[in-house]
Amino acid sequence: MAGLRLLALLLLTCCARCAASGGKPSNIILILADDQDVYLGGMTPMKKTKALIGDAGATFVNAFTVTPLCCPSRSSVLTGRYPHNHEVRNNSLSGNCSSALWQSGPEASAFPVYLSKLKYQTFFAGKYLNQYGKKDAGDVGHVPPGWDQWNALVGNSQYYNYTLSVNGKEQKHGAGYESDYLTDLITNRSLHFLEDRSPQHPFFLMLSPPAPHSPWTAAPQYQKVFSDVKAPRDGSFDKLGKDKHWLLRQPVNPMPESSLNYLDSAYRKRWQTLLSVDDMVELLVKKLDSIKELDNTYIFYTSDNGYHTGQFSLPIDKRQLYEFDIRVPLMVRGPGIKPNQMLQAPVLNIDLAPTILDISGTNLSSVNVDGQSFLSQMAPSLRNGTARPFFLVEYTGEGHPTSDPSCPKLGPGLSECFPDCVCEDAYNNTYACVRTLNGQSNLQYCEFADSESFVEVYNLTSDPHQLENIVKKVDPAILQAMNQRLIKLQSCQGDSCRDNK
Prior knowledge:
4-stranded antiparallel beta sheet, 28% helix, 18% strand
């Protein structure tokens, strides 16, 4: 009997790994956009991507990042862990972004390492982590383990005039569209990799374009499209952040015309940059089809965090606990995934690593992750599984030790300040939230690490735009239960992060 059980387990594991092509392991592609929201229409310009991935597979309508900032979020994608476990807290080296501690610890057991052991041919191109390639972070010579081909941007997103680490060697790029536009360079190098791959082994590509991150430089052919588009004016747009954390109470309201013009321009340019990513998806799918690998390849499309343009009178950024910053696009196509699925189960960016490893055939019990595979959600014929009813969102605020010279009245401890002294972040914009989302509840409970011990609570069923903080109206017993759940999640590790009791 034990032998039969083992055989059944092996066959189930092979279902995903060898889902097509006569038993050959499945290929995997992960496309990770930079700062692309889903809440404010960020997917609207991407018609090809929606048709070729979303319509051809599953769209997760409740996909979230566990932390709404680039470097800690990307670290969560790579490790499958919450920030309190991988210890990358913000975009700075002192916040562990691509630090020596990250490189010697979490990076050494990131999911590409496991894929490499399974003989996957691995390829990376684009933005990696915000401090990657800097002198104090191992310089361009540092190539993380698990990657066969490495084309990583030094530092934060750029479209022109940047430096790459190409397999550990510095490669400088200028301002020529044909040779240097980063989104297209990522596309072209990935197509070459697919052309030159060994057909004997599966492949994994992680493509991380700069779009739609600032400086929002569109390709020449797209710089005049969407000329009439403006940022959405509904929901929490330019609403006073009353009863919220002090950072949300300080913006000028209503916003001045100069701020409105600025954020409208940013919104348009973001859409323009995404059209090149849309082209990337189309070219990749065509290439996979031409090399007869499309039916045996899982393609994931997502973003590291959401974004806001004018919500609660904050001009533009991410970093906040609200839906516009923590919700992300997520679409997947591949073997065993039926087309045109709109899936409601909450899925997190820490679930990407275990899902990809699940597809590869890795025994997940041998991997240190906080997330869980969502293969069962999109391909129930391949896996059994359950959805989580609640999860953690956590963020550690960044600030400057001295006052911003242009805003001396605000004092030290703030960052990301605009000319009218509206700041998007501060040391004490440090919070942890329990987000509950199931058939019965749609709630958010957040605690700030500040002198006020500020708490925000939202019922998103009746208040989807989080306009009213109901902390003073909620039954104290419910608040206590939420507090206890939050304390447990903030110290969870591995299995305990998946404990749904």
